[in-house]
Amino acid sequence: MDNNLKRSIILEHYQHPHHRGLVDDKSYIKANMNNESCIDELNVMVKEEDGILKDIRFDGEACALCISSASIMTDTLIGKKIEDVEKILTNFLNMATEKPYDEKLLEEAIVYNDVSKSPNREKCVLLSWWAIEKILNELKDKKHK
Asked: Which domain holds residue 19?
């Protein structure tokens, strides 16, 4: 993907983030994440029904990369089965850490395929994805109880 197109997609998601804004609904599972090396702090909420992520919301104070990544993440994961979300998450984390990944699974999130070249920005891009990982682990724990 062309670098100008990547920048354009990232900027669009930063200026007009999708699914931004939290809801007052106890059926959502929440995670608070922060990046100790900068100002990024995000709250992420997920509504899961019948093994499908029905909704993902986020809000917080964060940089352009963090906000855009969270926005793209919500678009990529909403409506997907948990098993598919886990595959996408694994591939995204692999991409960000220079491990083998299937780019077809990442949809628009592929715009971050060179984030590993800027280690100081890596956490910004990964923060919302780590929140999803934390929430998925919480969902697994609830099912095992």
From this structure: 3-144
- Partners of residue 61 on adjacent β-strands: 41
Q: CATH number of the domain that 59 lies in?
A: 3.90.1010.10
Q: Give the containing element (helix H, strand E) for 34.
A: strand 29-34
The CA distances from residue 89 to 27, 123, 139, 140, in Å, are 22, 15, 15, 15
Tens of pLDDT, residue by residue over 36-81, are: 888 899 999 999 999 999 999 999 999 999 999 999 999 999 999 9
Strand ordering across the sheet containing 52-61: 29-34, 41-49, 52-61
Element (H, E) at 111: none
Query: Hey, how many other C-beta atoms are within 10 angstroms of the C-beta on 75?
Result: 16
Task: State the pTM of this model.
Answer: 0.94
- Say how far apart CA 76 and CA 60 lie, in whole Å: 20
Domains in the chain, number: 1
Q: Is the CB of residue 46 less than 8 Å from the CB of residue 132?
A: yes
